[in-house]
């Protein structure tokens, strides 16, 4: 699992590369728990190379969901692979989180 | 060994008989010489008998001699002196007393012959004993070469026994003299094999020197008597003609002498040897402590004692962590007081800072008195050695050693102490490892119990009824898992079935699973609808589930009278269904959020209830994600499609067989490698039949 982030203005784009399992979700949790992340108003998550997400990985996003919502930070997922999207859908997270197709769509929604 | 015993007895017998015969023959010969009468005495017979006697005595000792095993050399030396060497002193008495005895009591011309024969007997016994004791010593820690050299030496010596048989004046034959000279040189060569002296401790060395001297005196006495009397005209026989006796005597004397000299000259160095030996022993002891089940405390104290002994320190202490575990108070009267220690630690700190060597180098300080602060303390120490106890992972402490002499710790001492500390650290780490593995063993036992407890939480048998068949399968990836299912009979015709999966694996998942079971049984007493149950369960779980955990679940209430099933899906896998009327296999596409994701009242909006009227022979398959997300070697997922296909092929079977078919297919797919907990329930509805 590789986690990269690129920053532009008030947007941070986090790219996930590999499998988000129990051990790598700890890394992600550290990333999202970093206080400096609250400085951004938009968090875009690039899931293009995310091949697998475990319940622990979902748990990390779920645990930060409320915090970002309270701080009016938009959390947007894009480029999600079909099987990963299926996991989000089964759990009902697609109705709770914003999941879009491409980076451009993500930027458009983020700027609304 | 019985063969050896027989040899000994036989040789003893022939020895005794031949000696008696020899004596008789000599007396007869003497009578012949004195009285001029001819009788049966035969000079040639004498030679033969003496050879038989010598051979018997030597063979007796050969059979009796042992192989030197340990380093106890004084016992055989003592045995040689008592049993062999004493003969010389007995002879001394006889010979000193001879003129008196001869004059006052017996006055027989044969007396000297008898004494000479007795002397000869003692001498041969002594030589045999000495010869084989020396063999025992020479062959201590032998090499193959040495063994064969000795064999030849022995054979050649024995060959010289044949010379008197020829009954000639061998001194006239130059080649025989040469041969004997060569044999003498061989004896000299054999006498340089003195390994054993090096293995003697100082005390033993003194004892050996004393015994060797006594043995040497015996040998010289024997030689003296032998040569003194050989020319005496009253004597009939003269054994100095026997080259074997001469050679054996020469060998025994030479070897005794060289041993004695080597023992004396190695006295000053034996202390060093003993010290090295003691170091080696300490090292061995340290390395064997684990097998002996010693505690950490004992290992440290062993290190402490060995280090003091090896370095000759006047005072010492060992710090483990911050506390002083051991100090030399009990060993030494000039123990250092705490003030002194503080100062030394300060000095160590200072030196480390100056040299920039880091806190954990070895520190050797050769002249403490040059440090003004230390001089003020007025303690006699000059040299300091600080040895850290560290491994790659941990720092254990420091060993402080002090000596009164300057430059007291040379490189050799430092190396020895260092290897002790290294071994100690290794031993301590091994001890920790053993303790850890015991602890792990205990955890494993606990887990086994947890696994058994959890197993009991999952129902093994469902109520059997005529209107449905149910078959279940459940397997945890680890000892305990987060999957669960359960049922509750709500009324005579209604049953609630729940399935769920707690996020994560292991113990925490197992606890939440047990909690969920409790919530199910608690809430369903109120006969809630599936969606109502989920809302209330979500609210109950919100209070106790940690933030990153959630639970997916699905609850089914089957009404047998109404032939309907109503259910709610909280983020759980879609329910697979086979409709026998339409002959169609499909997934129920309902929406519903997992439990514990939203933790307020708004959850109610996220859960929905679906009602479905079933037909007889319909099949419902309920499972957890461990089934559809099962993976093969290439990380492909089993998937909903394959599961659906399996049901479309097997719906006509009994519930039990449908379950087995699916599980077999999943196991074929994964090659029996389990990544996640797997649970599968197959329910097959049947024609309603009146209850009997």
TrEMBL record, chain A:
<feature type="domain" description="STAS">
    <location>
        <begin position="1"/>
        <end position="110"/>
    </location>
</feature>
<dbReference type="InterPro" id="IPR036513">
    <property type="entry name" value="STAS_dom_sf"/>
</dbReference>
<dbReference type="InterPro" id="IPR003658">
    <property type="entry name" value="Anti-sigma_ant"/>
</dbReference>
<dbReference type="GO" id="GO:0043856">
    <property type="term" value="F:anti-sigma factor antagonist activity"/>
</dbReference>
<protein>
    <recommendedName>
        <fullName>Anti-sigma factor antagonist</fullName>
    </recommendedName>
</protein>
<comment type="similarity">
    <text>Belongs to the anti-sigma-factor antagonist family.</text>
</comment>
<dbReference type="InterPro" id="IPR002645">
    <property type="entry name" value="STAS_dom"/>
</dbReference>
<dbReference type="Pfam" id="PF01740">
    <property type="entry name" value="STAS"/>
</dbReference>
